[in-house]
Amino acid sequence: MTQGNTLDNIRIVLVNTSHPGNIGAVARAMKNMCLSQLYLVAPRKFPHDEATWRAASAGDILDNAVVCETLDEAIADCQLVVGTSARERTVPWPLLDPRHCMQEAYKESVGGHRVALMFGREDRGLTNEELQRCNLHVHIPANPEYSSLNIAMAVQVMAYELRMLQVSGDLDANAMAEWDQPVADAEALERYLVHLEETLYDINFLRPEAPKKLMLRLRRLYQRTRLDEMEVNILRGILTSTQSWVRKVRESESGGGDEGR
Ligand code: SAH
Fold first, then answer.
1. How many whole angstroms from 168 Cα to the centroid of ligand 1?
2. Confidence band for 68, pLDDT divided at 50, 70 and 90
3. Which of 13, 60, 149, 176 is surrounded by the fewest CB atoms within 10 Å?
4. Domains of the chain
5. Share of the chain above pLDDT 90, in %
6. What is the pTM for the complete model shown?
7. Phi and psi (nearest 5°) for 37?
8. Candidate of 39, 41, 71, 84 to mutate for ligand 1, largest count of ligand atoms within 8 Å of Cβ
């Protein structure tokens, strides 16, 4: 009997894991809690005997793991991206504890969205840039004097919360409020942010010598807003129009177009 269906849209993404034993232990933690989707971004050693050994009877999770070279590949089609954080960051992001965060993840998964839960390197966690790709951050409120858990233990905590939601079934009906458009995925949002940055340079709002914080703040704004696909299209349309106006103005300034030729 498989009970994993309401969790099938949730993937565990391990970024640049060093120890293959940890990958195996994550697979086991996942299977115990009915999670099945494992994505490995540039694992240092995989496949590996140690991973297989630590996975015990969860070898199928390892066999089906998707190995990616970049984080972009692993989260491109996800509509909700959650990053785990063992430390406080300088630029604050929406931060939840595992129970509340997994409620959000579970609701979205039941509602049909693909959700990524990202876990970082054993020695230094996730980089700021990786954390900035997230809509939400989750922190296990551990002992402040020693708050860094082993990665498989951290996965276990999240997976347990998800499993509790699954067995209770409380959130299964009407999990997500109705919305008329699909939420944009991570790839669409990235493309929009690249386009926005380009346009801000075109209109001289951004300058190469200016501090980089502006794009970070805009990124946080959009990650928080959860744009839908139509909204992204509208915003990109505005950017395209802005760029074509700027081009026209520049052309007319630099020689007055074709007039007089
Ligand atoms: N020294 C690293 C800790 C990495 S622990 C750092 O300071 O960031 C490896 C991974 O386990 C982390 O990247 C995170 O995904 C997870 N993890 C460990 N402790 C956690 C905690 N208290 N809350 C959330 N995730 C945690």
1. 28
2. very high
3. 60
4. 7-168 (3.40.1280.10), 186-260 (1.10.8.590)
5. 84
6. 0.91
7. -95, 105
8. 84
